[in-house]
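This is your field. Pick holes in the following sequence-structure pair:
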Amino acid sequence: MSENLFTCAKCDAKACQSIDKAYPKNCKSTQAQENDLFTAALKEYETNAQNLAIAKAAASIEAEFYCKATRVEEIVRFALKMNYKKIGIATCVGLIRETRLFSNVLEAAGLTACGVACKVGSVDKPLIGVPEEGKIKPGCFEAMCNPILQAMLLNSEKTDLNVIVGLCVGHDSLFIKYSEAPVTNLIVKDRVLVHNPVGALYAQETYYKKLLELPYV
């Protein structure tokens, strides 16, 4: 790593968690202060009521339910603390059961759940330029995931918060890009590890050594 490049991913000091530790050389915290990004970021909290409300609600839930509440519970508590009423769910069509169960939880808390599945619109993949050989099953109709339409439909419902349930890598990026409401994740898709992507990292030195050896290009 270059002397002039610092990444928090390589840091062991974690000086930003306290006030009695020295920042490492080229620390992102000192860079932010030197480039006035620290002040600029604080201004975004101070001048944007939604930013401030979300930050305070998240901090409050973290403090009150640290290691006590599941992510499902945290999402519900966050929605209630923010006085949200309608919760959108951008779901993978393969996770409809999980979305139904989550909807039950939301409704039990007095919230309205509005789910939209990824295959909405039923558009065959070649219509966006995907060749037949680029399908899972070439020669068959294969509906594309349509995260932009998912976002547009939830925007039209005027949802207060949108929750991603298992959208594919990239599709989730497009959904977040087009969602007008704030977005959080409930399930991050990993078909191989039963939607537990961090498992590959924990096993990086044993079963998943291939992560560091695969020819990615």
Remarks:
- The longest strand covers residues 86-91.
- Strands lie at 86-91, 112-117, 161-165, 183-187.
